[in-house]
Amino acid sequence: MSNKIFTHSLPMRNADFPTLVDALDYAALSSAGMNFYDRRCQLEDQLEYQTLKARAEAGAKRLLSLNLKKGDRVALIAETSSEFVEAFFACQYAGLVAVPLAIPMGVGQRDSWSAKLQGLLASCQPAAIITGDEWLPLVNAATHDNPELHVLSHAWFKALPEADVALQRPVPNDIAYLQYTSGSTR
């Protein structure tokens, strides 16, 4: 990966966008983007906003291929990564409600996390879950009683076919996401 230095070529706008989709659409007009670092502060990935927008629009159509409807909730269980951001914005472009959920952070928390996850899922009632491969066995264990729930790894999500639909832009009063904790990703 080559380290690209992102430059902000657009005038700064201070939270005057009606929706998150409008904010990303504006950011995608520039060559700027975001960096992702590992736990040792080493650059792990870079994502230009133009690329994020294209991937989010394609991801939105893939989510809609699951027959999800506007306002359905999609739980996102992942570390902070480009895949998480792409799935989050795919929900925005599809009119779905992203629900980032915390992952176990410390030694010994994995065992208790399954019960906590079951409670969170009962509360937010997602129609789908997107998670990293590392968490897939735990998510499957927590959701085994719900066969209608779409549980997807990032790879499975990217392999879904794109629905042949026009994306419905969100409007300002649509719910964009539900946040259960300030530490949903690491």
Automatic annotation (TrEMBL):
UniProt GO MF annotations: ligase activity, forming carbon-sulfur bonds
Residue span(s) of domain AMP-dependent synthetase/ligase: 45-185
Domain of life, per lineage: Bacteria
Family listed: Belongs to the ATP-dependent AMP-binding enzyme family.
PANTHER family membership: DISCO-INTERACTING PROTEIN 2, DISCO-INTERACTING PROTEIN 2 DIP2 -RELATED
Protein name per UniProt: AMP-binding protein
Organism name: Escherichia coli
